[in-house]
Amino acid sequence: MDKIRVLIAEDERLLRETLAELLAREPDLQIVAKAGNGRDALIDALAHQPDVVLTDLQMPKMDGIELTGELRAQLPQTAVVVLTHYDDDENLFGALKAGALSYVLKDAPPEKIVSVIREAHAGEGYLSPGLTNRVVSEFRRIDTMARGQRKLFKALTRRETEVLEALATGLRNRQIAQRLGLAEKTVRNHISSILGKLQANDRTAAALIAARHGFGRPPTEK
């Protein structure tokens, strides 16, 4: 049976070596590299292409969240397991949004860390106790916000929807007017109405909201 190939990214040398010793005892796990910072971890990962990367969050040169994003972009087949002291929302959701499959607190028993690595290799995620409810609450909040925005879109007239579609592609008022055969003043009036109905502060915010719902593409911010 092929072993699960693991890379450890941890800036604390003692903990890094302790983790390596722990995993080395498991007959189905193989340590392919150990890195003391995020940049070296990425270089080693690209060289060894591990099955699982076990990473800390706070590291020099490149933190764990940035490392996770780079790994997901360049090695999508590699599962990322975060092992950290931090249980705050910023780090938790930052890591998950970057693509981490599992988020484990460092007070977890050694056998749990080992089992999470095996589960990650099988495509199964894990969150330390106490974190799951917060993630569920965040998804509910996002879903509620999305449903609310969908209701706002229903308030738009057909012409306002056409203007918003053009706005979301990055067109200026004059270009929108030419495309839709309208006076530029009429376009401005439509945009003013759209901003009010979508509860958007400006045209860029409205375009970004529209893009998230499949309109056009996000505008390039200068």
CATH superfamily of the largest domain: Response regulator
Estimated structural class = alpha/beta
Q: Provide a count of the helices.
A: 10
The domain tally reads 2
- Which regions have little confidence, pLDDT < 50, spanning 5+ residues? 218-222
CATH topology of the largest domain: Rossmann fold
User: How helix-rich are the residues, as a percent range?
Assistant: 55-70%
Measure the end-to-end span. 53 Å
The CATH class label of the largest domain is: Alpha Beta
Instruction: Tell me the CATH architecture of the largest domain.
Output: 3-Layer(aba) Sandwich
- Rough shape? elongated
Strand order of the largest sheet: 2-1-3-4-5-6
Please state roughly what percent of the residues sit in beta strands, choosing from under 5%, 5-15%, 15-25%, 25-35%, 35-45% or over 45%.
5-15%
Average pLDDT for all residues: 87
Which quaternary structure do these chains form? single chain
DSSP E strands, number: 6
* Rg from Cα: 23 Å
Please trace the helix and strand order, writing H or E for each element. Answer: EHEHEHEHEHEHHHHH
Largest sheet descriptor: 6 strands, parallel
What does this structure look like?
It is a single chain. With 222 residues, this protein is an alpha/beta fold. The protein has two domains: 4-130, Response regulator (Rossmann fold), CATH 3.40.50.2300; 145-212, Arc Repressor Mutant, subunit A (Orthogonal Bundle), CATH 1.10.10.10. 55% of the residues lie in helices and 13% in strands. The protein contains ten helices and six strands, in the order βαβαβαβαβαβααααα. The chain has helices at residues 13-24, 38-48, 64-74, 89-98, 110-121, 132-154, 158-168, 173-180, 184-198, 203-212, and strands at 4-9, 29-35, 52-55, 79-84, 102-105, 126-127. Strands 2-1-3-4-5-6 form a six-stranded parallel beta sheet, with helices on both faces. Strand 5 (102-105), helix 5 and strand 6 form a beta-alpha-beta unit. Helix 7 (158-168) crosses helix 8 (173-180) and helix 7 crosses helix 9 (184-198). The longest helix has 23 residues, at 132-154.
